[in-house]
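Hey, can you fold this one?
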Amino acid sequence: MTFDKALRLTSILLASAAFIGLSLGAHLPDGLLLVTGAALILVLLRTLGIQFDERFIQRMTLSAATWNVLVFLAFGGFWIDLLWISGELLPAGVHFLLLLMVIKLFNLESRRDYLHLYAISFMAILAAAASTTELWYLPVFLAYLLTGVWTLVLYQLTRDQKPSLAKGLPAPSQESTAAESRVTPHLFWLANGLALGTLLLTMVIFFAIPRVSAGIGRSTIGESIRTSGFSETVDLGMIGPIKHDPGVVMRVQLAERPAGAPDHLYLRGMAYDYYNGRSWATHLTGRRALPEIAPDTFAVRSGSSRQIPAATQQAIHQTILLEALDTAVLFGASFPETITGHLFGLQSDQAGALYLPMPASSRIEYSVVSRPHTVEEADTHLQPATYSQAFTRHYLQLPEASDHVAALAEDVTQGRLSAYDKARAIQDHLTHHYRYSLDIPAGSQERPIEEFLFHRKTGYCEHYATAMVIMLRSVGVPARLVTGFLATEWNEYGNYYLVRQRDAHAWVEVYLPHSGWITMDPTPAVSEPPADPGWQSVGRMLDTLRLRWNRSFVQYSGADQLAVVRGLKEGTSTVREQAWSSLSSLWHGLGDRIGHGLLSIREWNLRLAVEFLGLVAIGFGLLAGLYRYRPWQAQTAARIPADRTRVAHLYERAVRHATRHGLIKRPEATPLEFLHLVRNRWAEAGDAMATITELYCRSRYGQTSLTRTELEQARQCLAHLAQCGRPIQ
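Sure. Predicted structure:
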């Protein structure tokens, strides 16, 4: 492949990598995606030598003045987009960049045009970096880096030439000139070595210079995940509609997961004390700032629960990676003691809920040490309890007209003496006599709990938890409703819980005199249809890679740099063993499951499917180009024209014809010596063999290209050889 053609190809691939990054990271209009993708594919096919209808090419060939007019129109469209359509600088700028890219792709006539395309591609890859922090950006960036190195090398190699870098393919040149301007094996490995060295240098800079988490180019409007059930007032039925949403909310990594531990984890969010018959609210709204007992470490002291001896409970150490939510609530297992993280402050209300000063605009990572309360032996027996008036007002409050509910609570707890036994009885009654379902219209009943308990007997977690709280309060047991997430999806490759929107949950906290607040859940377990284990395994592997990407790159800070240096000083053996162990656990079984998992995809997102297939097509195109040109092979073998290969094949067939008739060509014999043998012993085939031999020698030893007429003449001579009689013995 000549330098001119290679430069044009790498330039288009450079623009393609930037476009793929933008299409995956930014929310681009479908029409703009289609136009830009079609333009890239068209110019790429033309560069690879795919012929098109000349009339179509003439229509696409516009004058320089016309292209300048299109640029001015695109600039006007940028202002319209900025002021009236997108309303933001980053999306409008991205749209303008892609329009400039399309215009420049069809107007590559001079080296200045190539520089313009490189500048547009560079701005596009920067915009892609500002639009996302996802794992997929890494392979896109590596592809851009590789093609960028190749493009710069080829651009410098062609600076003293006058290549035909215009529309279409470069014009053919003489053999000697082409021999000096082709991609040689030495250049192939040199450019790839430069790309590898650039990548290593980039990694060194990455680990040497701390970053700041200030995404100045990122849009902050509409990025937060919308959640329900974490405001000061929650209507009954708000959580149900999001139970079908599989979006990821957080990942919770445990320091250790003891054998025999429950296969779920309650992640507490907010607690509510007041119910008016249709909605919950918290009247304990007074917040206080939590003290910082160490750098980035906050102490949590719950004023509404008694301190329980630490020796009776096992602490739960969690590291939580929380996505950007539209709430300032922080989540963690009950009940948190300390929270560590790069937070700008932390607050707590009287019910134990934790808050950031404001909702985070990007994902955050923090660690929580929690110690759940267990039921003390004294609370399993009858223990008279007295509560303050303020405590009773908040946690024994009942809505109006709940007589039927009170009667049911008295009937269910008949014969139960202790508060704990009453709570267990109500929990068992709700779990075994009612059915779980999400098909409940939100807000359709005037008294939803009475409707749930006595008529419909079907509901979801909010109905169960609310019914239990009201029944407990009816028999004098303090209780409150809690909203959060119930984590059940365990990722064995990364040792963490993957928490989704559909894991939003409501449960009950019951107050016992000696144990404090304990967690109880009356909602029955929901049996979901079994999913394909192969695809689930692949999904968990990919999610583990996303977590590693966020930990090692996105959230990498100066403290992490010090930890790396400290680890290197302590020795590399432990680091190597841990890395090998992580890779082994991550990729174990991937080969057996990935094929099975891809076949089990049930739901297709058309846009993602098209982008995925586009990436696959570009990858196959690159492999096909490498297979065709083989730049790593010997230079002479890569330069053999097609006509030489054809005439050599015809000559070999002619020699085989003569061999079948008893005329054997010795290995040391030259073509002319073998022709002399044929003329002497097979006169009928002498002229045909002479023509084939002359064309073969002229092509191979004279380095002369044959015409189509000469190749056809050689084929006719070969056909004549097949019709000749036997030679003279």
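The chain has a mean pLDDT of 78. Let me know if you want another pass with a different chain boundary.
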